[in-house]
Amino acid sequence: MANLKAGSRPPWVGLGAAVWLQIASGNAYNFPLYSHSLKSVLGFNQHQLTMLGVANDIGENVGLLPGIASNRFPPWLVLFIGSLACFFGYGVLWLAVSRTLQLPYWLLWIALCVATNSSAWLSTAVLVTNMRNFPLSRGTVAGILKGYGGLSAAVFTEVYSMLLNNSSSKLLMFLALGVPILCFIMMYFVRPCTPASGEDSAERGHFLFTQAASVVLGLFLLGTTVLDHMFHLSASISYVSVAIMIILLMAPLAIPVKMTLHRKRTSRSEMLDQPIRSSDRSVLGEGDADKTEPLLKPSSSTADFGSFREGDEASEVAMLLAEGEGAVKKKRRPKRGEDFKFSEAVVKADFWLLFSIYFVGVGSGVTVLNNLAQIGIAQGVQNTTILLSLFSFCNFVGRLGGGIISEYFVRSKTIPRTIWMACTQFIMIITYLLFASAIDGTLYAATALLGICYGVQFSIMIPTVSELFGLKHFGIFYNFISLGNPLGALLFSGLLAGFIYDNEAAKQHGVNLLSSTVSCLGPNCFRVTFLVLAGVCGVGSILSIILSMRIWPVYQMLYAGGSFRLPQTSNN
């Protein structure tokens, strides 16, 4: 790991490159763009299509291998594996949709899993690396990266409609070739760096600039999509729009360029006094360690890397001193806020509460996302591209806003981030009831609300995991909890929504849907599904409140000084 001073350029170069890779990792969100071709060209019914949607979510979120690999291998190797999965998976799908080869259903199911599993490899590499590079701003970093990930659907929709002429086969080829090429270009810049010991004075401004650039990009993508739908923009205007989109995507790279042109001078005494520490171990020399008292000395709010348990009883302090002198060797279990091993975390109630809450919020939301085209058609919307773009933009707003708002309140009021999961899941109850009612004019409003609430789940879960269980094995924890997404898709989308949809279509058309591709029309196609999802989110809201009350003392310790204070890792 490179030993770098605070405010050095490589972490910001890595964040700028991570933005592109996070966009690429959103390739799984393109399923609604080519799902209609899988249904019409290959003759699948809605249940078969829904199960392909489950494969899409399983591949995207089963990331235990990437999580383990992120602790053992450099980021470039994790990105390389993801690029290979993208090439082979989408390559097979392209062969089928372009009718180059006739492939069996089971092979396409596996290919879709492999293709979207590239998302897990790419997002794990950039997220783990940048969370460790910016440990004091993990909520902000998670919000930015997952926000750009939420915009990926709109970015790909822009490319799909303006460059690829709404061709599913061209889109699949673009994914099979374009994403790997991007990975090969960017993998060198995403690398681990030793984080700064305290908050750099210019860091907040840099984050604000990145957040503002992402908001401008989101508004631009939404505006161009709506204009293209209304006025059918000419080819020249479309090419200009794509060029502007690329420039906006490059905006975060302006930060390291600015830092290169206007380098911050640091005095020699300041550099010597400034301790450098990684997220999981101290890099102070032995001589310095002898002169410090990390366990007993109170620390400031900006450069506190000692224990956050200063208020322990005198007996525990005496035990720590005895351990330090070698008189006692005690192996204790980590406390919440310290680095956990996976085997230590899975026996904690907080871990499974967070998993259940995420399962409810994301699992129900992805059910709507996977069936968004069919939901729109059932309610009389023929062109569902705007629905997808609206959901994508609001998903981005939720991810970015969830990171910003939770970071503000956790620093100023020490309010646990999970309280915002409770609030958004309560709003999701209302949203699903709006979908079920199918009242004229509510479809777009319900889609927007759901997109925001869905995005918040991501930007809250990620920093919460790192704060409760540490960054040392963060990749494994993050990807394990992410399994709630495909599990929710399997239960709510594959086994519930697809079954009800096909039965309702059979009633309307009086045919056997095992060999039919007819569509279901009317509110009854998904009404029961939405009512079930509303009930499930009610349970999720209650669990979110329970978890928030349990972990409130942890956040009071971690953010007591108004900024994050890294606890000492346990020796286990």
Number of helices: 23
Beta strand count: 0
- Uncertain segments are 1-7, 266-316
Rg for CA atoms: 24 Å
Mean pLDDT: 80
Q: Which term fits the overall shape?
A: globular
The SSE order reads: HHHHHHHHHHHHHHHHHHHHHHH
Distance between the termini: 22 Å
* Class by alpha and beta content: mainly alpha
Strand content: under 5%
Residues in helix, %: 55-70%
Main sheet? none
Q: Which terms summarize this structure?
A:
mainly alpha, single chain, 23 helices, NFD4_C, membrane
Structure notes:
It is a multi-pass membrane protein. It comes from Xanthoceras sorbifolium. Residues 11-257 form the Nodulin-like domain. With 572 residues, this protein is mainly alpha-helical. 69% of the residues lie in helices and 0% in strands. It has 23 helices and no strands. The chain has helices at residues 9-25, 31-41, 46-61, 64-72, 75-97, 105-133, 138-162, 168-186, 203-231, 235-249, 254-261, 268-273, 286-290, 314-324, 342-345, 349-370, 372-378, 385-412, 418-437, 443-469, 474-481, 484-509, 527-558. Helix 7 (138-162) runs antiparallel to helix 10 (235-249), helix 18 crosses helix 20 (443-469) and helix 19 (418-437) packs antiparallel against helix 23 (527-558). The longest helix has 32 residues, at 527-558. The protein is globular.
